[in-house]
## 1
Amino acid sequence: MSETTKKGSCALVGAGPGDLGLLTLRAKECIEEAEVLVYDYLCNPETLKWAPPTAEIVYAGKQSGAHTLSQDEINALLLKHCGEGKRVVRLKGGDPFVFGRGGEEALALAKAGIPFEVVPGVSSAVAAPAYAGIPLTHREMSSHVTFFTGHEDPKKEASSIDFSALAKIGGTQVMLMGVERIDAIAGEMMSHGVRHDLPVALIQWGTTGRQKVLVGQLHDIGRRVRDAGFSPPAVAIFGEVVRLREKLQWFENKPLSGKRIVVTRTRVQAGALSSQLRALGADVIELPTIRIEPPTDVRAFAELVQNAHGYDWIVFTSPNGVNAFFDLFYKLYDDAREIGAAKIAAIGPATAQRLKEFHVHVDLQPPEFVAESILREFQKMGGVENLRILLARAEQARDLLPKKLSEMGGIVDEGYAYRTVAETRDETGARRRLVDEGADLITFTSSSTVENFVALQLPWPKGMRVASIGPITSKTAREHSLTVATEARRHDIPGLVATIRKFYRV
């Protein structure tokens, strides 16, 4: 069979319950290899950043009463792309074979003779109770668990849920997809003999920073749901184990629990800040306002890199500059010694760390993470008169550093290693989510993130405050009439996270 006519393949991949840390390694591998990625409403949209830039991404979300594509249309879509010889990833919330209709998609693929694999995922039926502090089994309370769905095929003439059997078997019972019918389901359970005061918990958006938990009893859970305006997606747990939540809840006790924080760094760089905030319980919206691109004149920068051995000092002002420099350097040379005797200066620990990852020793790292600090360090060392200095920096960066070094007698070449441009894409729907749901805090890690966020002209959510990584970024924010609520004392990502944590502790 020719390359053009051979069939592709499909991976039915469980995206887990929402927490990125609960996605399996195999699931991440599949996303990274996808040529077509078809994903659901319950998938964490941050998983999309692992897909290759060339991958076609299709949203096939199905919410209650709002289906983007029907199941038949999804099946046809998978068959079409696989028939074109492509590697297709069908990304499904939770586990594809646990109330996820993955079995129907697998049957369609099998019938068409298309090879497929199933990548199990952590089901919200197990993960959400764990994050709510509710163990599904306990030696003194429950030795078995029953899973059932509250949302059955509407074409069925009668429910296949045997409420009589549920009443007899007891133990812990977990229901997925039934929050809209909780009144009717609780009524059926009570009419079949389940006691009225049975503890019940509903967990909305379990394992994520949006997690909310509602606890009641079988006879009043419907009223509590209505009063609280509780809506899908949610998992319900029926049983004595719900009582353990009072002592075992842990996720909501994290320092940033209940806080929604916007991260505006580039899509590639957002991960470090986002993961640290999520680890503290925050609900993070990654809304990149900038992206890093090659400089306008790559040839000019390449010529400076090629002559790096002729400089006394090479100054790096950011990890992006380090990446751009050494990407070019190793295209030109295959021996690190070609950098010659140049000494290396780095502004900020992240820049220094990136240099160390390239096995480059940092000779000068000022205590403060701004250009002014490196100027003071050079003065302490006796100045830079007649020394040749290469600055690997961004286009349109502040001119303070080259200007002052030149005034000190240095022979300065500005190497424009990269440029920051406005991020125009919004593949994860982050902008819409910010407008619809608002946020407590927005983080700015550079002047360009401020400028490009303002340029989006999004409505400013009520009560959203600003956290800045340092004085230069704060100055830019104020120039755009933004009030800075808190500024990192240490001007790097760990410093910003520590400042945010302290801000909400006060």
## 2
Amino acid sequence: MHDDRWLSAPDPKKMDEASLLPPPPYSGTFGWNVKLVLDRVISASIFALLSPLIVLLGILIRLDSNGPVFFRQERVTQRGRRFLCLKFRTMHDRADTSPHLKFLDRLIAGHNPGHACPDGTDAFKLVDDRRVTRVGRHLRRLSLDELPQLWNVIKGDLSLVGPQAPQAFEVERYRPEWLRRLAVPAGLTGPWQVDGRGRVPYERMIGMDLHYVDHWSLKYDLALISRTAKAVLSGRGAH
């Protein structure tokens, strides 16, 4: 049995430290500027192309359970800037968020919460969460719940590719060396979303994102975009 007490104390100063992070050395280069242009062009094109699907999914969500179509949650992007991340609602309206926060806190502290996937392998996301709706379970499996985040990319809150956007709750529990993860904009997809998803420990996920920050290139971004579709269609690690 796990102790329900949260394992780590928050440090609000971490958000202030994030705001002082220097830009990465490739910021302002031709390749980086191309990335910023592609963010808007590709995301706007995909959003327009998939708009009928987005409308259909919104209708299915409303028919399946009471509550709003979209779920908004404050997340953190480059240098600690906060924004409202937009997703399709996959849980019952007004679901209790404390189980997720306690689970996440154990992950950040390096403890395995003891969950497993149906195939018996370790899972580092909540599995068989009863708060998830019937439609929501399918949306999560195919990562369709994240389609509205294309709007966040169009607005400039997110990049198409980058580290996963954390909650302030997470940043306040970061080790000092982890803050470098916020040196670049958070992404709709990225190393963890493609190669990890719910099957790698939190520290490993941070390491994957730090590797991205340290070794970014436009070629790296394009490779991750091309591999994202395969990871989504396989449903590997999604819950």
## 3
Amino acid sequence: MRKIPFFLLNLFFCMMQCGAQVKVACIGASITYGHGIQKRETFSFPGQLQILMGSGYQVDNYGVSGTTLLTKGDNPYVKTALYQQALKSNPDVVFIDLGGNDAKLVNRVHLDEFEADYKKMIRAFQELPSHPRVILMLPMVSFVKDTTGIWDQVIVNKIAPKIRNVAYETGVEVLDIHQLLIDHPEMVPDLIHPDVHGSAILAMRMYETLSKKQDKAFDVFKGLKDFTKESFYGYECANFKLKGRESKVVKPKWATEGHPYIWRARFWGHEPQADIALLERGFHVVYCDASELLGNPEAIALWDDFYALLVKAGLSKKAAMEGMSRGAIYVYNWAAANPSKVACAYVDNPVLDMKTWPGSKENALKYKQEHEQFMKDYRLKTDEDIQNFKGSPVDKIEQIVKGKYPSLILCADADEAVSPETNTLAFEKKIKAAGGMITVVHKPGFKHHPHSMPNPKVIVDFVLQSTSSH
């Protein structure tokens, strides 16, 4: 038997101790390149990602200004020398940030070919010897008002859905960077390109993606039966029925440790920004349609069965709850009955006292159908029954606080449908008086709609912090 040469042994032990560098290729146009940023090699988002990742990573910037994903675009990226260099680098990870320039009027005529061109580029990287992890990035927000240029409505309504569909059909990951700077126009001085601070936000989001621990072996669908699949913004969604009720489980591209999930109470798919952002981070999104039971005992029993199914399928024993408007009733009534099973509760312009909505005399006329349903759900007959009603979240403070989980409320101060004073503010006061944890984020001047926020960072950070110990 031949002896292994000494220098090879040294090389092997060095690799074991130091680890080979992970090569990250950043593919894109001028935003990737770092247009308008001084010392772009360091302060473009690929440069800042290199700083964040450290010496164990080699982050290469292959950005070429003005390029398109479209092969028939006015400046196709696939025809550049840097594209060939990126392929030859045999990367371990590929971030692709293309599509913004495809939103220009001159390129929109070819958008029917966008998905096929994108799939071809993805295959070109996946077929490399390194078989890299490929991550698609939705185009960044554009504040340009020229409809012939990089028009944001085209990005949102045409480009982004196509990228999500490509992600769904190919199984690759997708990052929604569009939402990251949508509330920071000051970081986009020329209305298109982020400055050094905006690039730092993009780099940090990419860093989080690369740093997150993954449980790639877990597949929640193995614990489900008799379901069909569809796309939920680029993610696989299982549709099935539980006791005749529509139910859904959306799985991330990979599951994070502990298999956490956000449980949408009502209005599936409405203002889904936070749900999508959590899917990117390895959360699942779940839903069981209990409309319109308004959190009554039948709804609680249905959700108890749904929770048991989720846990049996391998999801966390602690649920992150999400309720918009009347969805808050379901969230807190179930949480009051199951305080040990809740990690946190996020509610948005919430109904927390059904005597005010839909039970009041005013709302009996304005929301006739909902008022009648409320009476039916709780077997109420008279106005006196309504006044004596004690089935709302504001009536269950002791049970809610018993769970020792935090609550976040987004409250539109000009809500014309659900009074903040008799719902959010009254609930907040009672929770605090009982020693509970609650944060109210006010939205001055906003009405009942829209829910959530264009940039859901406050919601996402709350859920991540609240579930980190579970």
## 4
Amino acid sequence: MNHYSAVVILLLAIICFYCTSAEPEFESLFDGESFAGWKLPAGDNGHWRIADDVIDYDHQSEAAGEKHLWSADAYDDFILKIDWRLTGEKQTETVPVILPDGSVAVNEDGEQKMVEIKDAGDSGIYLRGNSKSQINIWCWPVGSGEVWGYRTDPDMPPAVRRAATPDTCADKPVGEWNTFVITLEDSILSVDLNDITVIDKAPLPGIPPSGKLALQHHDGHIQFRNIYIKPL
């Protein structure tokens, strides 16, 4: 083997190493035209639908059982990117005030402190097949991105409940698109909303090691688009 051949072989070996060791790329979970990769609820009757590259849900599913839109595949560690917006008509509602530690504020008389908001409903994203690890989407002043099942669980340590509470409200006004970047590694969760970290390395004790994603059926007209995932 001459010197030139040896150099070529070395370069090819280096290229192969980097190709095989590179991080996986984001893969699309929504093609904009069909529910390929998702499982529609049986008997939904068209309330989960697709229009203009957007998943549109009017929260009126007629399915007899499960009404959420579940992914066909399960995932363990990943980064999920997804756009969402609430599009329902705003109604005046009174909701509790959530403190930074995840608890509900109380008045001097010990009653919950309430605040009036313009509410357009809510939804969420289930991680690893688990409603407890739902990333919340709503209009409450504490902001979207909170992990409801952990923030409200009195059996969780105070540090866990605090970490499951958004650091700030980064939501855009109702009707505008928002972007989540959700990172889940082992049992540690981070959530960026519109390029702002609202959940920073929150521990989720007891979360399953793997499971499917779900777009939640609840009481808000919501839309999703640009759904991408990268395994870690």
